[in-house]
């Protein structure tokens, strides 16, 4: 069975556009190929690993790769054991089809349970490897990284670790690296290349005005952990002055969820328009995206390709304006939500029952020059 999501963290995109009513038909979701995340390499030597490739001895170093985007490091792994790690040229994101590597779905399955730059001890615990022995030269992070890297090279290149002498360290370290590698390979289920189309829309087709209250409005989004197809963190909202967004029980809301019915309770019928601020952490590049070293012209150069183990994220926000009840009338037609990969539909003929048509937030891939991190890969 091939999965399409990874721990709620797989997604693409950054940058935000707000489309109201019939505006925005020119904003297509099929972005040009030059839109991608980029960064500079960093890291340092990890544990030395002993093994063979095609029957020949091939000792390697589990170089602890990091990709630095907007001064923030993200954990990555090499996916070509025979290629030297590039430490000078910048890297740019590439689709899997542009990377000459096999078994990337299984590699992403490894990353679902492997070391992602955080909670290294948790990886060892899950693998039954016990507590890592640390010295001045290495610690639990190096062991978790080496076991994860060994599993990846085994899948991408057929590299076989020396089960009798896997590292140049003490026996306990040998056993821990082997335990992590075996655990990750045994539990790797293939996961498709992450490339979802994020969306958020509020449909007003059923909304009516009742005194100072208008609703219900229906939220459609994949920014919601309560959705069976959710791949993104929830969108939080800031309650406006002059009105309160509530659910069917009248409870004030603090976030938008997929399938949610919402009402707006204005302080009075003469209240003017109010503005709701919506905010979320969105991913520029999700776990499993691959990167290639490039020269000044952006052309690929020689060097080991990398796969991202910790999502690159940024925080975005937008404002949604709601009209006052005395300006609202019953809608005359229903609106259509955007279809992934197509141009946003033009919404016409809607006499707004609070929102002018359907409010659609379209999150698009940010170009390389503006990609950045939010200083918190676990930020939800």
From TrEMBL:
Is Signal one of the keywords UniProt gives this record? yes
Annotated protein name in UniProt: Thioester domain-containing protein
Look up the domain of life of the source: Bacteria
Region (Disordered) location: 33-52
> Which residue range or ranges hold the Thioester domain?
102-189
Q: Which organism is it from?
A: Glycomyces rhizosphaerae
Please give the start and end residues of each transmembrane region. 344-363
Q: Which Gene3D superfamilies match?
A: 1.10.150.480
The secretion signal range is 1-28
A Pfam short name? TED
UniProt keyword list: Membrane, Signal, Transmembrane, Transmembrane helix
């Amino acid at each position: 069975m091939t999965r399409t999501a990874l721990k709620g963290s797989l997604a693409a995109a950054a940058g935000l556009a707000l489309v109201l009513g019939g505006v925005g038909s020119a904003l297509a979701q099929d972005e040009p190929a030059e839109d991608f995340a980029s960064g500079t390499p960093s890291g340092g030597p990890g544990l030395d690993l002993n093994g063979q490739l095609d029957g020949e001895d091939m000792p390697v170093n589990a170089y602890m790769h990091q990709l630095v985007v907007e001064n923030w490091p993200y954990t990555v792994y090499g996916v070509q054991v025979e290629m030297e790690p590039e430490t000078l040229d910048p890297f740019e994101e590439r689709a899997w089809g542009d990377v000459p590597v096999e078994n990337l779905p299984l590699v992403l399955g490894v990353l679902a349970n492997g070391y992602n730059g955080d909670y290294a001890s948790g990886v060892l615990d899950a693998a039954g490897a016990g507590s890592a022995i640390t010295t001045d030269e290495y610690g639990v992070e190096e062991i978790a990284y080496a076991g994860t890297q060994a599993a990846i090279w085994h899948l991408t290149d057929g590299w076989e670790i020396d089960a009798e002498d896997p590292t140049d360290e003490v026996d306990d370290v040998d056993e821990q690296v082997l335990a992590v590698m075996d655990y990750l390979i045994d539990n790797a289920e293939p996961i498709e290349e992450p490339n979802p189309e994020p969306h958020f829309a509020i449909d007003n087709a059923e909304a009516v005005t009742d005194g100072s209250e208008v609703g219900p409005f229906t939220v459609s989004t994949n920014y919601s952990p309560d959705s069976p197809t959710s791949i993104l963190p929830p969108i939080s909202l800031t309650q406006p002055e002059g009105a309160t967004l509530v659910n069917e029980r009248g409870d004030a809301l603090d976030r938008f969820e997929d399938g949610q019915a919402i009402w707006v309770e204005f302080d009075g019928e003469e209240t003017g328009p109010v503005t709701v601020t919506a905010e979320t952490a969105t991913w520029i590049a999700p776990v499993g995206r691959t990167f290639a070293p490039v020269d000044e012209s952006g052309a690929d150069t020689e060097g080991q390709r990398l796969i991202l183990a910790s999502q690159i994220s940024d925080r975005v926000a937008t404002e949604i304006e709601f009209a006052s009840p005395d300006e609202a009338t019953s809608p005359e037609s229903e609106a259509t939500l955007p279809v992934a990969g197509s141009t946003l539909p033009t919404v016409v003929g809607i006499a707004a029952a609070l929102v002018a048509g359907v409010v659609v937030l379209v999150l698009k891939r940010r170009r390389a020059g503006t990609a950045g991190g939010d200083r918190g890969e676990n930020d939800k």
